[in-house]
Amino acid sequence: MMAKIPVSVLGATGTVGQKFLRLLAEHPWFEVAAVAASSASAGRRYGDVVRWRETAPLTERIAGLTIQPCVPPLVGPIVFSALDADVAGPIEQAFAAAGAYVVTNTRTHRMDADVPLLIPEANLDHLALVDRQHEARGWPGAILANPNCSTAALVLALAPLHRAFGIAKLFVSTMQAVSGAGYPGVASLDILGNVVPHIGGEEEKIEHESRKILGTLGPAGVEPAGFAVSAHTNRVATVDGHMATVSVGFGRRVTPGDALAALREFRGSPRVACLPSSPDPPVEVDLRADRPQPRLDLERGGGMAVTVGRVRPCPILDLRLVLLGHNTIRGAAGQAVQIAELLVAEGRVDRPA
Ligand code: NAP
Predict the structure, then answer these.
(1) CATH code at 5-148+333-345
(2) Element (H, E) at 224
(3) pTM of the model
């Protein structure tokens, strides 16, 4: 059996950090060797500091780790970042400059021209930006980003349609769970029995990130996809899972039957499909009238699949549909782990002998 690759987690005490530790607990290739967080937590035993919110118990080995400050070097060639976005920028850059592959959940570097913003089933070719980053920044490591949580589910569901028919116009309205705001996140008195029709910066992230991910890699970087996006984002009183209702227009006539065939046939490259975290299929279609629902459909594909339902004609654009994705798995930690697996599978990070 292959020896496991040691990895480190920055922001390990937060919502996404905890999800990393849970997903990596039994990972076939990776083993968490170091956890890091703010100076208020550093130097203390992880189990004494963390407010563990995962339903699987915290393992004794991880509980016994001493929290490190977010200063390079930490153990291993891969560093996962679940840092507060306000502090992530210089910390992630310092790790990349010190030789680590930093796979980040934060917004800070997502739109940088030389940083790949990856959903491997949708834009595997953008991984090549890592070479430009080595060259442009002169550092031996690199920063790779996964998308914002609502964008991740949206774009995975739309990738087959964009690939097959070319999206021209997109209207999306989200219903996003409270875990998307971290812990403690939104005050219970603000969200229980309520809907908050504003999530700071989220609409802009959907509009910019979706066009970068579905864009074309050229000599000057990624040329964003040319479609127009109108996004409305809402915080709702669910715990996990971001839903979105979508209307989409194409450059030509597309029937629900055409769209369903494209969604059902969609598979990532075999180079992605073989990764331990890749779901099969990445997009699940469920045409029951009242699906998908967060309580019933969130764990499909281990939280890495997106579920699409209610595919029907739209009287304004061409098609309407509903989609659901797991915001802390496909939308955060699980997506980052899959990207790290890709780095190993593509030979960019060595496997131990
Ligand atoms: P969170 O629960 O608030 O956790 C933030 C983490 O950052 C904690 O570990 C915290 O450590 C650490 N931190 C804060 N200030 C720091 C500092 N000055 N130096 C070093 N570490 C510091 O947030 P989250 O929801 O897990 O989100 C983490 C990142 O992922 C954010 O950038 C967020 O936008 C992004 N993201 C979140 C989701 C989601 O669904 N929640 C999805 C996609 C992306 P202490 O405990 O020591 O303070």
Answers:
(1) 3.40.50.720
(2) none
(3) 0.97
Q: For residue range 49-60, list pLDDT tens digits in order.
A: 999 999 999 999
Please tell me if the domain spanning 5-148+333-345 has the same topology as the one spanning 149-326. no
Residues 155-208 pLDDT 10s: 999 999 999 999 999 999 999 999 999 989 999 999 999 999 999 999 999 999
Are the C-beta atoms of residues 106 and 38 closer than 8 Å to each other? no
Ligand 1 centre and the CA of 28: distance in Å? Answer: 26
Which one is the CATH code of 149-326: 3.30.360.10, 1.10.4100.10, 3.40.190.290, 3.90.1150.10?
3.30.360.10
Query: Which sequence positions are flagged as catalytic?
Result: 149, 242
* The total number of residues written for the chain in this structure: 353
Give 311 Cα–ligand 1 centroid separation in angstroms.
35
71 vs 69: CA distance, rounded Å: 6
Give the closest residue (by CA) to ligand 1 atom 4.
14
Q: Domain spans of the chain?
A: 5-148+333-345, 149-326
Side-chain half-sphere exposure of 34, counting CA atoms within 13 A: 22
241 lines ligand 1 (CB under 6 A): no
